[in-house]
Target: Zinc finger protein
Amino acid sequence: MNLSSHGDGNSKKPPTVVCYICGREFGTKSIGIHEPQCLEKWKSENSRLPTGQRRPLPKKVDRQGMGLVEANKLAWKSSQDQLVPCPNCGRRFLPDRLEVHKRSCCKEMAQTDETGQWYATFVVGSMVRNQ
Model:
């Protein structure tokens, strides 16, 4: 996501607003519809997590007095704080995507190199880096 090009007046696209919960971009008129629905989904998913993995309610970014780019950066950071780490490889996902990821991730395949960069060694012996 290129937050620096949104709402700077030079872009031909209409300005977008980042959801503080999921990190997706929406038009200025759509965000008010999306956020309450996204928060309900978040609450539902959070309640299904084991007690020790449940997260505090995300805090809505107070956009008053700041520019769109700055507000979007704060909203993006807030959305990234909602990600849950995979118990096998440590990569972070939204809870509904973590379940899908865990089906194909196992401890024997998930590793990190000396820099902490995640990679997976597959049965055929190849190595793929997480981009």
Residues 3-129 form one domain. The helical segments are 31-48, 68-80, 95-102. The first helix runs from residue 31 to 48.
